[in-house]
Specification:
The protein contains 1 helix and 4 strands, in the order αββββ. The protein is an alpha+beta fold. A 4-stranded antiparallel sheet has the order 2-1-3-4, with helices on one face.
Length: 123
């Protein structure tokens, strides 16, 4: 014989009441908890994104600086830790020099230093 859906064979082992007189199951409102945690996680994600974006911009700038210097003309081996000056020649070709911009009249593009990893940094 079939039983109705609201009848259990072992009502004593159920984790909830199975008859009409049992306490009501009330689901707590967890919307506030969810919203608070969503905001916290989103702040962390946005902060990490901002940090990664800043790092990416720094890498792009480093790449462009090194591309600019290494594509310039120079007839010497630069020493690590020394300051060099980049100029644009009259022929439109950039060149690296030891001569500072105050010592001659050339189109000055910037001063750079070579670090221990052979990476140029603008100063």
């Amino acid at each position: 014989m079939s039983k109705p859906d609201n009848v259990s064979d072992n009502p004593g082992i159920l984790p909830y009441g199975s008859n009409v007189g049992a306490p009501a199951i009330i689901i707590e409102n967890i919307g506030g908890w969810k919203q608070k945690n969503v905001e916290k996680v989103n702040k962390r994600i946005l902060k990490k994104y901002s940090e990664l974006n800043e790092e990416m911009q720094k890498l792009i700038n480093d790449y462009n600086t090194n591309q600019l210097i290494y594509s310039a003309k120079f007839n010497f081996e630069p020493l690590i830790g020394e300051t060099y000056h980049l100029y644009s020649g009259k022929d439109g070709i950039n060149f690296l020099s030891l001569i500072s911009p105050s010592e001659w009249k050339q189109t000055y593009l910037g001063s750079f230093i070579l670090d221990s990893e052979n990476k140029w940094e603008k100063i």
